[in-house]
User: What shape does this take?
Amino acid sequence: MTDTSAVARHYTHGSLLEQLQRALAASGISPAAVSIEDLAPVDEFHIGGRAASLDFLERLALSAEQHVLDIGCGIGGTARLLAAHCGCRVSGIDITPEFVETGRVLCDWVGLGTRVELHHGSALELPFDAGVFDAAIMLHVGMNIADKRRLCREAHRVLRPGGAFGIYDVMQTGSAPIDFPVPWSGSPETSALAPPRAYLDALAQAGFSVLDIRDRRGFALEFFTAAQRRLQAAGGAPVLGVHITMGRDAALKIANMVQNIAAGRIAPVEIIARRD
Assistant: This one.
């Protein structure tokens, strides 16, 4: 079982908002003028960035009148994109207090504080009533949650009948152990990687019907190859990017993740399910 306090410590930066402010200032952007497009390089804390988010959300066919839950929302990047792109009302929840606090500030900066609410809490004990959400999403979160069955039961509980549950997680696709550290964990103790079958079984037992599953390994490798070309052309990492959130060893975490994907040990996988 993963230790939730250890997971929160792994993601805690210590001065995340201050560093984001410095990076924005270095880019000539003030909090009063910042947009979700400006924040995209740091907001998209998952493989594929903004392109992956838009493709994923398109497959869920969300509409403006819906209330969506973002499980493991981080600093709220996908929640803000949902609110701005689809017009949804979004509630996010994350176990890392600093992420939630930072995300609330960013929501206010971009004028979405009334449509996006971020909460501190556990995905295994969602602080919401039953049947209050039209859809739920989870992007690169399950790798830190060992109890996939309880996770899916909680998602099922808070969704209305017929509600969609979209998952985009890094999943185990090979038998060999992975190299650490990776973006979601510094060691096996805080990693809860599981194969797609574990997700499918947990979803079925919770009362979901799986509509589609898609392995995104090829997409991920293309994304990282293109990112490496951009880094080489620019002569280094951009001022504003996910490396800020990941901390000092960001380059090693990303390099290990790319190697693990290339070796067939892991891959990002999408699952679209519906609450029965």
Observations:
- Residues 35 and 110 are 5 Å apart (CA to CA).
